[in-house]
From TrEMBL, chains A, B:
Metal-binding is among the record's keywords: no
Cofactor(s) for this UniProt protein: pyridoxal 5'-phosphate
Pfam families: PALP
Domain Tryptophan synthase beta chain-like PALP: 14-301
Gene3D superfamilies: 3.40.50.1100
Cited InterPro entries: TrpB-like_PALP, TrpB-like_PALP_sf
Keyword terms, alphabetized: Lyase, Pyridoxal phosphate
Protein name: Pyridoxal-phosphate dependent enzyme
Amino acid sequence: MYKQTLLETRQRISSFVHNTPVLTSHLLDDKSGAKLFFKCENFQKMGAFKMRGATNAIIQLSKEQQERGVVTHSSGNFAQALSLAAKNLGVNAYIVMPDNAPKVKEDAVLGYGGNITKCESNIQAREEAATQIVSEKGATFIHPSNDLNVILGNATAGMELLEAHPDLNCVLTPVGGGGLLAGTALAAHYFGTQCKAIGGEPMLVDDAFRSLQSGKIETNTTGNTIADGLRTHLGDINFPILQQYVDHIIRVEEDEIIKAMRLLWERLKIVVEPSSAVAFAAILKNKAYFKGKKVGVILSGGNVDLDTLRFS
Amino acid sequence: MYKQTLLETRQRISSFVHNTPVLTSHLLDDKSGAKLFFKCENFQKMGAFKMRGATNAIIQLSKEQQERGVVTHSSGNFAQALSLAAKNLGVNAYIVMPDNAPKVKEDAVLGYGGNITKCESNIQAREEAATQIVSEKGATFIHPSNDLNVILGNATAGMELLEAHPDLNCVLTPVGGGGLLAGTALAAHYFGTQCKAIGGEPMLVDDAFRSLQSGKIETNTTGNTIADGLRTHLGDINFPILQQYVDHIIRVEEDEIIKAMRLLWERLKIVVEPSSAVAFAAILKNKAYFKGKKVGVILSGGNVDLDTLRFS
């Protein structure tokens, strides 16, 4: 039922996003035992796949809605994405950010013309601040991951990957809020050939893994993973999509994430976020499963704070 | 006189090296005031332009010479390049490395099948160790930068860049031993349209700048720059080429190199060595000169030791 919608979505946002390159590496193939195709969303505009969903969500608003602006709460990449997508479309963006957000991400939001409202770093404070902006400005709230238009926009990364490499056996993404994995699972279902969608998730915030097991949306008690983009939980719009279209989720430890990220930096010579390395870490952890398969990996973004990042 | 030789060189090594991508960035254009074209030799095989010169130098040896192997002394990238190029061509490579070389580079040489001989970290010890291998094995010594076939091989990066963007006003490279700048200057002269070749050099090891001023090969008393690939000095083969074909050399301070490298990592989302950032730092330091110009920048390599690299 989504095939035509996905094709229209890709057409709709194509002039606002990059068709990002797909990198390969003999050395990483040797290390994993699989044939890997890395879809480099770190090279996407503003440095992450979230540009895709944000752009689609704003374009799908009515003219009247666009004139009143958009609002979101985000710990980072979606804040930048909504700011830049809004700027490209002549729309105001109001961004609620936790007061402990990395400075590099805050500066980027300001650079893209977003209007920042700071709040305490908890979900209740964020939602209250966003609700207040909705009522004051008449702005439309756009959720970073639990929004169908965001999910459909995110799906276009997987569509491009499968257009370039139609015979992938599976495609992996990190899973945090669930928006990228849901979109990618739709892309795999409608544009792959028996292509499985698989998630990679930090063990420390394994809510998505537990949600698929229990059949209801689970949350995390702690969120202290290096993969800071993956600390959120699923929502009622993306969860049914994950239930229907995702094959399984693989959990990885923190040291496995760092080791995988280091391999990507050293061997592909690209800057990727810890969250991006989670899907690759899942492959390295399950070599027997992926052995000999053609595996797509969506590297979700490349916005890191070089001041704080340490490999040792 | 070199035009046909350069075309033959490019043909000769084409199946052994990547035609690396050229990246652009609106943000870095805005920051510099120029239109920048980054030739990404960090994506070259073994992670640096040196693969080009090493491959050409080995292919140009006779069968008998190839059978006895090749030897060089190098603090890093040329050691890897000669090892991999030799492996690709079925030749033995003997590598003299200083005992303080980064472990990541030593491991890479071993990974590419090179045979390492350790020596003290001074030029005399290196040359003695190399001479001993030449006399024992009958191997041919190949200098990392002061060898015409190496220079001609290096030139192919600039040739590819100018083929993709023929109207560059100038092209910049870092200058250490002089092999990349010499090759690039030849490429600019024979394949550009009034395209100037400009070097970027750390102030701490500004021997090339001083050599062009004095008319003779100068050396450095200290070598403590973060751009560890640039601590060497010019040679009698590349110096005349630099004198004839290089427009000028711009010197940059250590903090300017680190700032430039950080911009490349953060904005292009790529991993480049400090040496690679020196040419970009030269542009940022001389914005008035480069304003409005189309400027090629050869990013020389991406082999960094993530354990020791710090931005703050």
